[in-house]
């Protein structure tokens, strides 16, 4: 059941996930009541979008701080003057973009980041959309038998293979090396329930991640991979997703525990520059914890 709001309006992007919010001008200031409704919309929709925001970096940071403490990403290059703002950038002559595979951020941390506030500074004339998928919908659509098995399982997540020396962006195959780095810091490992109780909504959500999940606890990698692949493919079914078409000045605030996302890399020859601020999260518990 979606909430009705008094100070904002929500226009869902799909039945499963995502809503565009109107009635908010971050630069002019947001009242406590508006912010509390914005937070409720974030819980209700998993990812929310604002249009036509004119923000200085300081205003972007102040808005992000209303959501929680800022988590400085270890591996993304930051903007020159603002270490808390990570750049998600692709130049016209570059081939690789950041985040082109379906994933959720920071699941290698013991307390994975809540989500990010992504601000579009430069967008291509066409393309560069971002897809989001609901991990509530993914869980709900599993069979009772598979739910029962997954509810008792945990999975291992790591930053080592993704951001360490063997990382894809460190290889000659790719041109992401000017935007990602600090491979020596890729030492995080974490064990999380496969089905989490969402810290804000209390709903069950599927929590495995194509970028960072290594295997199920007590299973070998070879045993884990086929089931992980099944779950990744299951979770990105069209019916569980929405697609956001960015314009300059758009803002997305997404929940890493309720959604996955995928940044389309279909705009070669044009520049796309986003500023990302990530917010600290919570401990994750199993939906069925004893
Ligand atoms: C990301 O995965 O943080 C990038 C999202 C985007 O560029 O749309």
Structure description:
The protein has 290 residues and is an alpha+beta fold. The chain has 6 helices and 17 strands. It has helices at residues 32-45, 57-67, 135-140, 144-151, 160-163, 221-235, and strands spanning 9-12, 19-22, 47-50, 70-71, 86-90, 115-122, 130-134, 154-158, 189-193, 195-197, 204-206, 213-216, 241-244, 251-255, 259-263, 272-279, 285-286. A hairpin with a 6-residue loop joins strand 10 and strand 11. The mean pLDDT is 94. Succinic acid is lined by residues 88, 98-99, 118, 130, 261, 263, 274, 276. Residues 88, 98-99, 118, 130, 261, 263, 274, 276 line the site of succinic acid.
Cα radius of gyration in angstroms: 18 Å
- The number of distinct β-strands equals 17
Poorly predicted parts: none
List the bound ligands. Answer: succinic acid
Number of helices: 6
Fraction in helix: 10-25%
Strand residue percentage: 25-35%
What kind of sheet is the major sheet?
Answer: 8 strands, mixed
Gap from first CA to last CA: 27 Å
Mean pLDDT: 94
Q: Outline, from the CA principal axes?
A: globular
Helix and strand composition category? alpha+beta
Pattern of helices and strands: EEHEHEEEEHHEHEEEEHEEEEE
């Amino acid at each position: 059941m979606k909430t009705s709001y008094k100070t904002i309006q929500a226009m869902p992007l799909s039945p499963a996930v995502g809503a565009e919010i109107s009635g908010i001008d971050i630069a002019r200031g947001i009242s406590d009541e508006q912010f509390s409704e914005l937070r409720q919309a974030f819980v209700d929709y998993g990812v929310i979008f604002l249009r036509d925001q004119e923000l200085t970096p300081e205003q972007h940071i102040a808005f992000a701080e209303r959501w929680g403490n800022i988590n400085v990403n270890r591996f993304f290059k930051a903007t020159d003057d603002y270490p808390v703002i990570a750049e998600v950038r692709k130049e016209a002559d570059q081939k690789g973009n950041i985040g082109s595979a379906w994933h959720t951020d920071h699941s290698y941390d013991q307390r994975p980041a809540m989500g990010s506030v992504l601000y579009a500074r430069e967008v291509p004339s066409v393309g560069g959309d971002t897809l989001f998928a609901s991990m509530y919908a993914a869980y709900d659509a599993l069979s009772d038998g598979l739910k029962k098995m997954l509810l008792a399982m945990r999975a291992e997540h790591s930053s080592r293979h993704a951001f360490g020396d063997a990382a894809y962006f460190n290889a000659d195959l790719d041109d992401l090396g000017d935007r990602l780095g600090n491979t020596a810091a890729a030492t995080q490992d974490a064990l999380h329930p496969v089905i989490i109780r969402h810290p804000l909504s209390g709903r069950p959500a599927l929590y495995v991640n194509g970028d960072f999940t290594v295997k199920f606890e007590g299973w070998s990698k070879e045993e884990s991979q086929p089931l992980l692949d099944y779950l990744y493919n299951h979770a990105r079914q069209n019916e569980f997703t929405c697609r956001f078409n960015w314009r300059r000045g758009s803002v997305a605030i997404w929940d890493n525990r309720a959604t996955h996302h995928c940044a389309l890399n279909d705009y070669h020859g044009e520049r796309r520059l986003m500023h990302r601020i990530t917010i600290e999260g919570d401990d994750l518990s199993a939906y069925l914890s004893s």
